[in-house]
Design brief:
Layout lengths: L6 H14 L8 H16 L8 H27 L4 H23 L9 H22 L4 H8 L2 H11 L7 H18 L15 H24 L4 H22 L8 H25 L2 H8 L2 H13 L5 H39 L1
Helix pairs in contact: 1-2, 3-11, 3-12, 3-13, 4-5, 4-10, 4-11, 5-9, 5-10, 6-9, 6-13, 7-9, 8-14, 10-11, 12-14
Length: 355
């Protein structure tokens, strides 16, 4: 009786052939277990697991808690005197360190990609985005910086219209206008330049807006990357490339961390690795509109941490603006999902007619 190989069996066979050279040597039990674990990791972060909303909700909620924790760690490092760019460099370096065991398990499959140009673009945008966000966290409360980051889906849609020539209907244009009106409520530019408790736009708020713009451009890139690469490969390659790039600005403001800051930096790298692995797994598990809905949980997490550890609060207008922006972001994500479904159905219908 014939049996059909599973994807995991095929992966194991490929690893065996690579190791033995001629396919004759059989791996020992420990080696097989390591390969099975590596295959499971790759499969759980690949874009082949189908629609699984419950898994997506779990992954995204965990990711948002971790990303809020990153913001709190960066804020604490800034308050204890470590420059934001130095913290950014150590974050990237410790990401790579934490991922080294995964490299031992996965081997060359973790660093092999057919999309090098997309990674270069992603690293450039991520460098600007995270540098700006780390700077923002050194200037403004973590809840406010997190709320401003919700502008990224709006910027992503606007960039798709202006740069990629994407055609959108009146309803999405209205949604964009309402979303940016929410940004005005949150940022209160009529209060002048300076930011802080007095309102208005200061250097911290401006940096957070720049970060959100770059994240808006990163989103479509990550979706393209997941079409061929799994979550762990994306995180490892991005972190490995980002480390030497982030060293350059760090050297301009260099200071060695003190003994109290080292544990925070180690945790920063760990939270970053786990946060991005879980987020990408959320995106590949289900539709982006559902993922977007649960990404709002990052704001309550961030506000809670800011209040408990830094005695920070954010204004009612920041909450109101964030709710407006996030509602619009969910609507836009839902419209994009419906449009994608309609295009897919039209494509299938066209093929059936030709057949």
């Amino acid at each position: 009786m014939e049996t059909r190989d599973t994807g995991e069996d095929a992966t194991l066979r490929r690893h065996d052939l690579e190791r033995s050279g001629d396919g004759c040597a059989a791996p020992d039990r420990a080696d097989t277990g390591k390969k099975r674990f590596g295959a499971w990791l790759a499969r759980s972060g690949s874009n082949t697991s189908g629609d699984d909303p419950l898994s997506a909700i779990f992954w995204v909620t965990v990711s948002m808690a971790l990303l809020a924790g990153i913001a709190a760690l960066v804020r604490q490092l800034a308050l204890t005197g470590l420059d934001s760019q130095v913290a950014f460099f150590w974050r990237n370096l410790f990401c790579v360190v934490w991922l080294l065991p995964l490299l031992a398990v996965r081997g060359r499959s973790l660093v092999t990609t057919r999309q090098p140009r997309l990674y270069v673009l992603r690293v450039a945008l991520s460098f600007v985005s995270m540098s700006a966000f780390f700077y923002a966290l050194s200037r403004i409360p973590i809840g406010e910086a997190t709320a401003i980051s919700f502008l990224s889906p709006l910027f992503g849609t606007l960039i798709a219209i202006m740069v990629l020539g994407e055609v959108v209907g009146m309803r999405r244009w209205m949604a964009l206008l309402i979303g940016f009106a929410g940004a005005m409520v949150m940022l209160r530019p009529w209060a002048g330049f300076g930011g802080g408790e007095a309102g208005g736009i200061g250097w911290g708020e401006g940096a957070a807006v720049i970060s959100a713009m770059c994240v808006g451009m990163i989103g479509p890139l990550v979706k393209q990357l997941t079409s061929a690469d799994d979550a762990d490969r994306i995180v490892f390659i991005t972190s490995a490339l980002m480390t030497p790039v982030s060293l350059v600005p760090a050297l301009l403001a260099w200071s060695w961390p003190n003994p109290q800051q080292w544990p925070l930096l180690v945790l920063l790298g760990l939270f970053a690795v786990l946060g991005h692995m879980t987020l990408v797994r959320g995106y590949v598990a289900t539709d982006a509109s559902l993922v977007m809905t649960f990404k709002f949980s990052r704001l309550p997490f961030a506000v809670f941490l800011g209040f408990v550890f830094f005695d920070e609060t954010i204004a009612a207008t920041t909450w109101a603006g964030a709710v407006i922006i996030f509602t619009v972001a969910i609507y836009i994500a839902r419209r994009e999902a419906l449009a994608k479904t309609s295009r897919g159905q039209a494509h299938v219908a066209g093929r059936q007619e030709r057949d």
